[in-house]
Amino acid sequence: MGGVDLRALGEFGLIEAIRRRARVDRRVWRLGIGDDAAVLRTRPHEELVFSTDALVEDVHFRWRTTDARSLGDKSLAVNLSDLGAMGARALGCLLTLGVPEDVEAARLDGFVAGLLRLARTSHCPLVGGDTVRAPLWLISISVVGAVARGRALLRSGARVGDRIFVTGEFGGAAAGLARLDAPGAATPSERRLIRRQLRPRPPLGVGVALARARLAHAAIDVSDGLAQDLGQIARECGVAARVAVERVPLAAGLERAAARLGLDPAVLALSGGEDYELLFAAPRGGLSAEVYTRRLGCRVTEIGAFARGSGVHFSREGRAYTLAAAGFAHFKPAPRASDK
Ligand code: ADP
Ligand code: MG
For labelling, which of 113, 114, 139, 145 has a CA lying 20 to 30 Å from the CA of 199? Predict the structure, then answer.
């Protein structure tokens, strides 16, 4: 794409530049970018899964604290996370891109490079989209995936007595975000937290493996905070979730970073968003966390269980624990001073 001005390049020039760089597997897609629509070859015994997620400048990201490549990568990663949480493997994606007409060529180039790189490594080709002029950057990505018929991991399958498992570790992305806004140079350990915020790495194969082996009753990717997303499962399933806070795995370096930022690591781990780990419910007599960890090739921790009732209930060392802040939601009323 070089150093070309979008006003000179134009909408079609930009689309053509993207098209040249996008690689599509013809065995999966009969048509990719270039016609009125992309054409997917479907297979019997499979169901298709669709999801979409948007990122808006100054709502989801700020150019002051992110680089274009990371943004391209993250825009697709958060969508792949949704597919993974359904137990689906990715087939392809569509990109709606709104950019200001005086957009920096290097920014555009970096964004497309970051997105297409992850598209390649995750076998999720870019097969179409739309390109528009906008006052701020707007990135909307839609993904399509496939899962064996009847095997999709829903939010609604958890039962009383099921155990609650999570992959990976929590609080890192939220601490990274807070660190991005703090002054001074970040330590190497803080830079790893920042990287979790800018370049989330959802455990994409885990949902697929769980669905294939019928190991989970329900699953969700944790994007809006553990407390909130677990609450979604509890609500959908008509059960209560009980979680032992001391069992929730904290991101490496979280406690030290939180102390420097004046934040509570437990609140970051339970309410902070964007960790993109997978949470799943599995039957009582099923595998242990150690066996999951070995079989899935990814750290898995048991943090609690579902019980009769409703809501999410935390305990810490056996005592009831009240969480100070809920997770992320758009359009929620601004917090009052007395909430702080
Ligand atoms: P139409 O006017 O029919 O909507 P467009 O000119 O917008 O067609 O798009 C032409 C082709 O380029 C289509 O295949 C469309 O999916 C693709 N396309 C447009 N914008 C993008 C983009 N940002 N990323 C990938 N493909 C795109
Ligand atoms: Mg169009």
Answer: 145
